[in-house]
Amino acid sequence: MDYKNTLLMPKTDFPMRGNLPNNEPKIQDKWNEMDINKLVLERTKDRTPFILHDGPPYANGDLHMGHALNKVLKDMINRHRSMTGYFVPYVPGWDTHGLPIEQALTKKGHDRKKMSVAEFRELCMQYAYEQVNNQREQFRRIGVRGDWENPYITLNPEFEARQIGVFGRMAEKGYIYKGLKPVYWSPSSESALAEAEIEYANVTSPSIYVAFAVEDGKGVVNQDEKFIIWTTTPWTIPANLGISVNPEFTYVVVKANNQKYIVAKDLLEDVAQKLGFENVEIDREISGADLENVTAKHPLFDRTSLVMLGDHVTAEAGTGCVHTATGHGEDDYQVGKRYGLETLSIVDNKGMMTEDAGEFAGLFYEKANGPICDKLEEVGALLSKTFFEHSYPHDWRTKKPVIFRATPQWFASIESFRGELLQAIRDTNFTPVWGETRLYNMIRDRGDWCISRQRTWGVPIPVFYAENGEEIITKETIEHVQNLFREHGSNIWFQKTAKELLPEGFTHPGSPNGEFTKENDIMDVWFDSGSTHQGVLDERPELRYPADLYLEGSDQYRGWFNSSLITSVAINGHAPYKGLLSHGFVLDGDGRKMSKSLGNIIAPSKVMNQYGADILRLWVASVDYTADVRISMDMLKQVSEVYRKVRNTLKFLHGNLHDFNRETDYVAYEDLREVDQYMYMKLQQFIKTVREAYDAYEFATVYKAMNNFISSDLSSFYLDLAKDVVYIEGYDQPARRAMQSVIADTLDALLKLLSPIIPHTADEMWSYLEDTDVPSVQLTDMPDAVSKDNFETLDEKWSRIMEIRSVVLKALEQARNHKVIGKSLEAKVTVYCDEQTTALLQDPTINFAQLSIVSQFVVGGLTSEAPDSAVEQDGIAVTVEKAEGEKCERCWTISETVGSNEQHPTLCAHCAEVVEGYYVEAE
């Protein structure tokens, strides 16, 4: 008789190899055919909504790993929530206006000067839709579930109409104004920029010290004395209209190098060192406040520079006498405004010096640094010139330096409702908690928001002008433009005249002849995305406002989190989100930023083509996403090994249920053996840990708990033990059915708990289950952790048993190393312990030999009686020797009962009994 045929070996068609790159698209096709998103929403429609609002990625180019991290995190949250009592509609979206699309079309050879603005915008729109479609397919390939057929797109007419409504309501409350003040200006983009569009990079700049001779000392200083200013932007010297000093500082007139200079007392030592002053002599001290309204001669032009008082003057660097160019700095502008100075800007849109720069007109501002320094030296005003490297603001799109430049711009006032903004932040839940401080400080310290851009591709600022130049923003005009945009899209603004865009018969006192013009600037794209709470959350009937959660990268504290907060609080008095969750950036394996020049970019498509989307998603779950995360192909290989372990475990669990019917074979908890109850308890602990981690968005905890449960509790313990029961016993034996019951519960729980992370694999295995008519695991709920009355005592008892088992396994390993045994089933184990442990080990209901995967398990005397060769730990001593008897051909244990049954001379008595009881026909 071939006894192999009497073993109940695992049977499953679930493949060991995932072949994810090929199989995942097939699974996704199945999801599309069944319209899984619609089925999930239909099943959960009566539940409490949970709205995670999608921050729109920019529609340009292929996805990078940051996109993947972001969307997988969102998808894991949404999938978890939909399986734990919530209705979770997810509407993905795209940001589709802005300079990059204009630049992309220019690179493709489109000459915008040879077409109308409306024609160029049509091309921009077509390109944007192409990019949306490209990115949409890549997001779907990652396995992100959502309403992909009806996403929100910021260029859609209905969205643009709602955005105009946001602008209108802010204007109605007095939060929108037009002003001439310095803003970040990008000569490379020829447009103003918001703070969120600024990034920093190192540059080398000139550092110069310049002398301004006193003109009118007001009886405080004399005409033979000179103020010393320090600047790193020599090109702004022609724009100088004043010198700012701190009223709280003490200033000194010093004699050095046969001259008299005025500097802050606290900075004298540093200035003297940098300018090479020797034998410095302090002539007298002056209060900063007394210097107010003194005038100095401009070193290059025939005009004076006014000395003004400003709290922005610090003693951290420089001279305490701050060069003030009102058109090229925020502090400069503010102090100049207080003193009635004009706002003078000396560069044009392209960064070229204007006629106001005198002889330097026509030079690019950076190129003007040299000639201006030469002129200062020629007139004897340049005291020092060196160069230094420092961090400087750059245009995040073009990667080129920006400048501060005063231009007429539209602004959203922040000061008007800053208190409400700060309160809204306090009312928001933050993960991680430091996010609250970060956003709070940004809002507390930020200036007014420049919302106008001098570009083509964007939502027009809906302002008209009367013949006398008066701005026209009324409720009537806003609603009319809204309706036009909702019907025709914003391109109509560039296709029609101002009069055609106004309500029929519209009149205004400032236009007696009925003539009107319109604003040509467009809105900052952050106003677009900052309006999604109205254009999406409030617009779509399945969503709700405010959202439960916004989740984006940590850079969005100054971006989308910021702009959305401002617009929402401005029009409705509260934040658009109840909670904010942020993640870090994706770096390479060495912690470097990914870039083409370094050649270290890992694209999501590459990962999916090589490993599959579930490996990518498992990597996301494995990292602490609240900080910057690292990725490399080696790391992904390690994650794929974890995945392989998970997959093989699922296969093993399923394979051992091939003859199990939950309705007829399931064993109730009360009827399980203690070892099975213990495993059931460990399963419930695992469920509790995972559920709590999901609730807290701690996916790395889910990953670690899964890894530990599968490796330690299942593979290294229960499933190892199960082989000696599920394979060996008769098919309907209580011990076997008990283990199958726990295995069935474990498989069910694992598939549901892992579904948010590896949905393709979970659904693939789900399709092999025969005891369910539910077509997808996504249409189920996660298990709740169950508690039983005996869990506490069970945990205490079995924790001790597992400690004993650990010492036994250590002794077996040493015995293997010393060639005493080969496999553990060749061993006889003798355990020496105290009386209390002896009583535990003599429990007749527990098979300690089976627990230890040995053939014979003997309780010796006390620990003190153990031989010197014993392995001792935790008060337990263990010896290992060869088991006595022969090897059973069927179960491989060494037993002295082998041969006791004449009909089955190569089997142990137990196996012979099983064979005779269940396999008579096979003989």
How many H/I helical runs?
29
Biggest β-sheet: count, sense, barrel? 10 strands, mixed
Helix-strand makeup class: alpha/beta
Radius of gyration: 38 Å
Helicity range:
25-40%
> What is the average of the pLDDT values?
92
The low-confidence parts are none
SS elements, strand count: 35
N→C terminal distance: 6 Å
- Beta-strand residue percentage: 15-25%
- Sum up the overall morphology in one term: elongated
Structure, described:
This protein has 923 residues and is of the alpha/beta class. It is 39% helix and 18% strand. It has 29 helices and 35 strands. The strands form 10 sheets. Strands 8, 9, 10, 11, 12, 13, 14, 15, 16 and 17 form a 10-stranded mixed sheet that branches. Helix 1 packs across helix 25, helix 23 packs antiparallel against helix 24 and helix 24 packs antiparallel against helix 25. The model has no long low-confidence stretch (mean pLDDT 92).
Q: In summary, what is this structure?
A:
With 923 residues, the protein is an alpha/beta fold.
